[in-house]
Amino acid sequence: GTFSMVHGKSTVVGLAIVRHPLIKAIGFTGSYRGGKALFDVANSRPVPIPVYAEMGSTNPVFILPEAMRQRKQNIAKDLAASVTLGVGQFCTNPGLVFYQSDEEKHFEVAFSKSLEETSPGVMLTPYIQEAYHAGVQRLAKTKGVNTIFKGKAPDGGCYAPAYLFQSTAETFLNDHSLEEEVFGPSTLAVTVDQKDQLLRIATQLGGHLTATIHATEHDLHEYEDLIAVLEQKVGRLIINGYPTGVEVTHAMVHGGPYPATTDSRTTSVGTDAIKRFSRPVCYQNFPQFLVPDELKDHNPLKIWRMVNGTWEK
Question: Catalytic residue at 104?
């Protein structure tokens, strides 16, 4: 009874679980549409319950000017590996990249070359593949968006070719659909002309799981205001790394402001995730025999406590 797997069409099974009176909390990973539907149903119950829905993210990457000039080849290679990791089927997949337009051509050539050297992979299900194809076709047909690179994939099966799209800051600022997740090995590169455009973009962003900044120390001093904005937009902020690296630790935050999740105060990866399925209880003025062993003055567990300003067992 600790763990049960229920099979069936996801909408039917998912809604039945959310509506069941014995269910007290829900964790969900999937699309915005699916997570929002479960959230709405949970809140319409006679006794509402919390829903911790992780609903997708485009995980924006910001490449600042000096870092781009010094490391564009390495960044392009490593970013392409992050975009195509697991055929792009990571909720932390970097689907947006922002950088200055004076480095546009050089970076796109290096990025495309790195994508071309990556073998196409197989997606998990035909449904995920269909959604990916629909997403890249939508981007390819969007006014102001150019297809810079399209990978090759074998016919048949669930293969997914990599894509690199390109647009400008003004197009991105005027078309909010460009921020929507395309789940798979594609990314949209957005070129900016000056710093204030980059700050406008960061300010306009919705909630995401992660944001990444590639920068030198000089860049970081010049763009401290960008960091301040992104702190309000994501659950995990990365300097000179890649968002697809996720590790279960005490410090891990795999969550973010809406619409990345329905509750930005929690994480779905990391040791703090268990707190989503626990509830605090305060025992006030209880006799010793009534409180749990962990709370007794002389409990059988060795614990640390503060005594006269110092910690002791």
Answer: no
